[in-house]
UniProtKB/TrEMBL annotation:
It comes from Streptomyces macrosporus. This is Ser/Thr/Tyr protein phosphatase SppA. Signal peptide: none annotated. The lineage of its organism: Bacteria, Bacillati, Actinomycetota, Actinomycetes, Kitasatosporales. Residues 77-293 form the Calcineurin-like phosphoesterase domain. InterPro entries: Calcineurin-like_PHP, Metallo-depent_PP-like. SUPFAM superfamilies: Metallo-dependent phosphatases (SSF56300).
Amino acid sequence: MQARATVEGSMTQGAGRGSDMWHNASAMGATGPLPDGYTPTQRDLPVVGPAAGVPIPTPTLVDTPSPLGSSGGEQGPLYVVGDVHGYLDELRAALLNQGLIDTEDHWIAGNARLWFLGDFTDRGPDGVGVIDLVMQLSAEAAAAGGYCKALMGNHELLLIGAKRFGDTPVSSGAGTASFKAAWLLNGGQHSDMERLQDHHVQWMSRLDAMALADDHLLVHSDTTAYREYGDTITDVNDAITEALTHHDADETWDLFRKFTKRFAFRDEGGAAAVREMLDTYGGRRLVHGHSPIPYLLGEVGSEDGGDGAPQVHGPHVYADSLAVAMDGGVTMAGKLLVTQLPLPA
């Protein structure tokens, strides 16, 4: 396993409502104190690279019914993947171990269904490689009668903002900041930015924020901020996608800030907050990434963990068994989780 990247000056959050602490802002080129929060979730299947010189949207598998959908065949088993954060080798190993891909990284799972919960990039060594693999598997799974889809994470919003807006100042409650400064502070990798192409950004900007699969409500972040964007899954996804089409730095920053909040389901009132989400959007259990399990449990003081982070062996079920945390903390020497749902009783 590759050595984990250590991110200095990364921000930490309180229980879904506290402010993020920003450090070393001047060193990263911010124009003033950096703000609170950031987090989104993603929008469905992959994009094929655009033809040269053709500035029209490229069709994606979102627009193309899979053989399974059109034939009405039985659905295969359901899997979810926690935060990857650029750890491509660990992702390959986890997918191979579950029998979803072969040693050449090709889909071999037939009509199985696979959902990524977001946060493909930053902190780890090869975020663009992770995106490329997910896009490839989306095409191969659809051709085989299954699917591979993804949700937007806050780091997708962060990368989109860094690419589109760079050092452009954005408004925040703590002063003036920029997407580029926030991206660097939160583990942005120069090698990812150098390799990031327009079709990657297009793909990320069309990812859904939430989905329902087999009575599991899938989201990236352990926050109730989704409810600010609509009362149905379709409304939430459409509102966030529409916001990103405006190419407005402050509007994108607001999305990033809200979906970086965490711990809404952890403490007193957490189970009630999960029930409100389930009552609104459907499902019997909510599944999320975003907050590394050792951080969620209070065993480390930040999402970067540090030395001696507790070992994670599987998902964490909490909030009266209504919530499942899937970020195993791969960035802190934890585990990249790929898990079949439903979980064993």
